[in-house]
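> call design_seq(struct)
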């Protein structure tokens, strides 16, 4: 009977080792629509298809310089490197938490020269405090907390979820950088295109000025015509400096994203190139895949997981904790005796800690963790709902941007016809020069609007890919460090 009684605590500990308090995390059920929302109203030429998303979406623009620039930003951007450093910190913190699952072992050694009080406690030297003595000690100390209620396991689970939060935070930074790089590049090409159009219009205005000067010399035109033509030339020339400054600002913005000094990309990006344009049709994946792609949804899920595991930690604090500890070593007053068999010493035994009265601290902590878990669950729902709204908004914006661009293209075509007609009629004396200036101003304005609208189409497509959560997978090389 006695042996059975002695074994029962060990048996109980083995059984209880599998007990883990608190709710187990379950991925939230967020029903996704079977199909993307149908477009209402007039449909533009380029439309998305529910096919597997091309993760390297910037390559659909067929611009090697843009692809190379994005690769450089992904390799060198400082914000991304800081996010990687935060991820390493999170992993290191997880390792410190997981260390509580294994026994701790430490070695201690010491030497002291001491003298005890003749009136105090017993003197190990045996001289009743009348002389000093040496004390040599060496110990091997071990300790291990029995995780009977799963407190440590829940802490590790929460730490693992926190690592996932840091991973997806890094992916969010990367996704934002991809979109910002592509957006700045598109704006740069649009500004360069606007510069070309403005210079072309300047040539037209200078031709009109010469025409009015020639007609004045012939006595057909007045000084007013020449003054108006000169004002038109100066007005167009005034547009150039601000456009050139905007161009240089965008080049510098791209340099900063790539962690390069100012003007370091001037030679590469200063030559004008075509504005990146979307393809006639492109794939945007399936609605059911969205939660796996968007880093913010994955991050919200990981935070909910961490909050759920923390409830188990709070519940385990209500129960007793048992820690096994022991030490073995040597102690001697003479160095020659240190390490001898008679100088050995050891101590083994469990330590039991049981909370009796905490003044409501444990209950308050549990209520806090449960409330935090509820907030995390609501935040997850909000993030998912926001994602669907964002995609729906960008899809409509992309369609509307195309329609606006196409209508402006027609306006440009008609304004060019109008300018040619006005110039011819002015030479024939059928209209005054004010008509020529008015039509030329309308042409320049419509051309600039058309360029801006073309850039807006490409920008909307970039925003759509960002909303879909695509692109970070192509560069998701997690920073690594040794685990110990």
């Amino acid at each position: 009977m006695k042996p059975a009684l002695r074994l029962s605590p060990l048996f109980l500990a083995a059984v209880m080792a599998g007990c883990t308090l608190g709710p187990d995390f379950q991925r939230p059920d967020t029903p996704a629509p079977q199909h993307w929302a149908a477009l209402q109203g007039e449909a533009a030429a380029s439309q998305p298809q529910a096919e597997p998303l091309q993760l390297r979406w910037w390559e659909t623009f067929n611009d090697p310089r843009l692809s190379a620039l994005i690769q450089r930003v992904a390799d060198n951007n400082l914000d991304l490197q800081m996010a990687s450093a935060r991820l390493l910190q999170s992993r290191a913190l997880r390792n410190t938490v997981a260390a509580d699952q294994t026994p701790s072992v430490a070695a201690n050694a010491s030497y002291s020269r001491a003298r005890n009080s003749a009136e105090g406690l017993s003197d190990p030297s045996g001289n009743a405090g009348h002389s000093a003595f040496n004390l040599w000690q060496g110990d091997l100390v071990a300790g291990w907390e029995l995780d009977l209620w799963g407190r440590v396991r829940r802490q590790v689970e929460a730490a693992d979820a926190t690592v996932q939060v840091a991973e997806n935070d890094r992916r969010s930074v990367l996704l934002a950088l991809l979109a910002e790089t592509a957006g700045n590049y598109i704006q740069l090409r649009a500004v360069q295109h606007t510069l070309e159009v403005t210079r072309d219009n300047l040539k037209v205005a200078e031709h009109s000025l010469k025409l009015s000067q020639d007609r004045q010399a012939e006595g057909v035109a007045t000084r007013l015509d020449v003054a108006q033509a000169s004002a038109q030339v100066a007005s167009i020339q005034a547009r150039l400096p601000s456009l050139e400054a905007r161009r240089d600002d965008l080049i510098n913005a791209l340099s900063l994203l790539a962690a390069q000094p100012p003007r370091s990309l001037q030679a590469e990006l200063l030559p004008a190139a075509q504005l990146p344009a979307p393809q006639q049709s492109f794939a945007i994946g399936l609605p059911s895949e969205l939660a796996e792609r968007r880093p913010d949804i994955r991050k919200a899920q990981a935070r909910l997981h961490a909050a759920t595991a923390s409830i188990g930690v709070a519940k385990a604090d209500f129960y007793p904790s048992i820690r096994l500890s022991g030490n073995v070593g040597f102690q001697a007053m003479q160095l020659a005796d240190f390490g001898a068999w008679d100088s050995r010493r050891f101590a083994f035994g469990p330590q039991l800690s049981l909370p009796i009265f905490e003044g409501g601290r444990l209950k308050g902590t549990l209520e806090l963790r449960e409330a935090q878990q509820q907030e995390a669950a609501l935040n997850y729902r909000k993030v998912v709902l926001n994602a669907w709204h964002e995609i729906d908004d960008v899809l409509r914006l992309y369609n509307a941007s195309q329609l606006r661009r196409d209508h402006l293209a027609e306006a440009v075509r008609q304004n060019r016809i109008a300018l040619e007609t006005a110039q011819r009629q002015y030479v024939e004396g059928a209209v005054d020069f004010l008509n020529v200036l008015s039509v030329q101003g309308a042409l320049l304005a419509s051309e600039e609007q058309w360029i801006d609208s073309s850039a807006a189409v490409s920008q909307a497509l970039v925003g759509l890919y960002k909303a879909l959560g695509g692109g970070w997978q192509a560069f998701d090389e997690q920073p690594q460090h040794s685990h110990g």
